[in-house]
Amino acid sequence: MATEKETATQDTATMALRIRDVNLYYGAFRAVKGVNLDVSSRAVTAIIGPSGCGKSTLLRTINRINDRVPSFRVEGSVKLHDLDIYAPTTDVVDLRRRVGMVFQRPNPFPQSIFENVAFGPQLYGRIPKPQLNDLVEECLRAAALWDDVKDKLHQSALGLSGGQQQRLCVARAIATQPEVLLMDEPASALDPISTLRLEELILDLKQQYTIVIVTHNMQQAARASDYTVMMSMDTADRAGHVIEIGQTKQIFTNPREPQTEAYVTGRFG
Ligand SMILES: Nc1ncnc2c1ncn2[C@@H]1O[C@H](COP(=O)(O)OP(=O)(O)OP(=O)(O)O)[C@@H](O)[C@H]1O
Fold first, then answer.
1. What is the domain-level CATH number for residue 150?
2. What are the CB-based long-range contacts (under 8 Å, 24+) for 120-128?
3. Domain range holding 206?
4. Residue whose CA lies nearest to ligand 1 atom number 30
5. pLDDT (tens digit, 0 to 9) for every residue of the chain, 269 residues total?
6. Model's pTM, two decimal places?
7. Is 269 a member of any domain?
8. Largest Cα–Cα distance in the chain?
9. Model ipTM?
């Protein structure tokens, strides 16, 4: 379990997310237990660990997307700066504007490239057309997609390649100017070249956004993240928990926990 000592490996002054004593349940099953985790602003934090240890469950807790699962329940505190994410007064629509998400499979809407990016900003308020055009261009440029699509903005997004579709999903996610970007195995459906392009994009985006990424790809975690959170499953109750948190370099070169070392070297998981 993460201790205060472990969370203090990151500079506490610049934390975007503070997760305290969190237990996550599906019905009676506790999928994740006892998580204490601070997530640094404008940095990439990777969550790694064997299948079923609760990485996605923890990630999806941050923007309350698991609210859609009726049996899901949270204990503990999850904060985005001063916002208590699970307070009854928290506006979930506003939370999801502040915490964007990119999923495992590219999932553009079956609409034009332009409409995919313009959708979110239009949902949150009327924007004059020239400003909307500028915003769409800015997001597509930030997602390293503008040059590929500038001449076909009004064609269907479904005509793009998988890698382009995933970059479009990043452009769509940043169009509402979120503070945090959650990525759940965002490269798992992409070829190696598209994967590297997405990783370069992640490194660019961290100048502006706090990024939390779940990945099974150890090289990706090592290349693209600043901090790594190692999760594992308890052998007794099968609940996932955090076993080590640290700077990615430390986790990959000098892990404190034998289980982390076994996992990052491919001997476990
Ligand atoms: N909607 C759900 N209802 C019930 N149980 C669920 C649900 N989603 C996940 N679980 C269970 O919670 C546990 C954690 O699942 P989760 O998907 O978070 O793990 P993970 O580490 O992301 O796995 P993977 O790496 O395979 O994607 C697993 O035992 C899983 O079966």
1. 3.40.50.300
2. 120/172, 120/175, 120/176, 121/175, 121/176, 123/176, 124/97, 124/176
3. 4-264
4. 52
5. 344 444 444 555 589 999 999 999 999 999 999 999 999 999 999 999 999 999 999 999 999 999 999 999 999 999 999 999 999 999 999 999 999 999 999 999 999 999 999 999 998 888 899 999 999 999 999 999 999 999 999 999 999 999 999 999 999 999 999 999 999 999 998 899 989 999 999 999 999 999 999 999 999 999 999 999 999 999 889 899 999 999 999 999 999 999 999 999 987 76
6. 0.93
7. no
8. 59
9. 0.98
Task: Give the up-direction half-sphere exposure of residue 146: CA atoms within 13 A in the CB hemisphere.
Answer: 13
Is the CB of residue 258 below 6 angstroms from any atom belonging to ligand 1? Answer: no
Classify residue 183: in a domain, yes or no: yes
Looking at the 3D structure of the chain, how many domains does it have? 1
- Residue 56 Cα to ligand 1 midpoint, Å, equals 7
CA 11 / ligand 1 centre spacing (Å):
30
Distance of alpha carbon 14 from alpha carbon 32, whole angstroms: 25
Q: How many residues would you count in the chain?
A: 269
**Which of 53, 72, 104, 242 is the pocket-test mutation for ligand 1 (most atoms within 8 Å of CB)?**
53
